[in-house]
Design goal:
about 200 residues, alpha/beta, DNA polymerase, domain 1, Nuclear Transport Factor 2, Chain: A, 7 helices, about 30% strand, NTF2-like_dom_sf
Length: about 200
């Protein structure tokens, strides 16, 4: 069910409705600068829209809700795809070892497997593995982020500050088809390149 627009004033609401935008999900398909260029939509309306978008884990097109200590590029637009947003959140929360964000999006019996290396069962073991192997990341590029039903995949390249490179693909399985379903398991395929010496 679409999320209604916040109270942004009659001129801004009319301006949005004139272009067919009647929900926050529809707002998220537009860049902030495009909306600001429409007569009737001013900075105050944009500020109120941004607050409402963040409250519903949405953002303007080509923007993210993530503040990260590294360069983040690539396929970051989640539009009206909650599972794509969840996978992106998982990727960034794993990279920053953010326990709170991770615990909100994975099941307690979460399973993480890297074929040929290890299989961890349970959130606590997964989080301990992240903590034990935390690295300082220079950049993270998301090449593709796709979802369908109860499954999804995300792949990209992570470059550490020491120059080492990790190419990764994560295959996600969600607990159900629901939009707010948590991640039940992930199978990760990883290629590591220690970088030039």
């Amino acid at each position: 069910m679409p999320t209604g627009l916040p109270n942004i004033g009659k001129p801004a609401t009319n301006a949005l409705q004139n272009i067919g935008v009647k929900s926050l999900e529809a707002v998220s398909k537009y860049e902030r600068t495009v909306l600001l260029g429409i007569h009737g939509i001013g900075p105050k309306a944009i500020e109120l829209l941004e607050e409402a978008l963040k409250a519903h884990n949405l953002n303007f097109k080509n923007e993210t809700n993530f503040e990260v200590p590294f360069e983040l590029t690539g396929d970051l637009s989640c539009d009206n795809a909650p599972k794509r947003r969840t996978m992106l959140t998982f990727l960034i929360a794993s990279a920053t070892v953010d326990k709170k964000k991770l615990s909100n999006i994975v099941t307690n019996d979460f399973v993480w497997e890297v074929p040929g290396s290890f299989k961890l069962e349970g959130f606590d073991d997964f989080y301990k593995e992240l903590e034990d192997h935390k690295i300082n990341i220079a950049s993270l590029e998301v090449k593709d982020n796709i979802s369908h039903g109860k499954v999804g995949a995300i792949h990209g390249t992570q470059i550490a500050q020491d120059g080492s490179i990790v190419y990764f693909t994560d295959i996600f399985k969600f607990e159900s088809h629901r939009k707010d379903a948590k991640v039940k398991s992930i199978t990760s395929y990883i290629i590591m390149n220690e970088g030039e010496s």
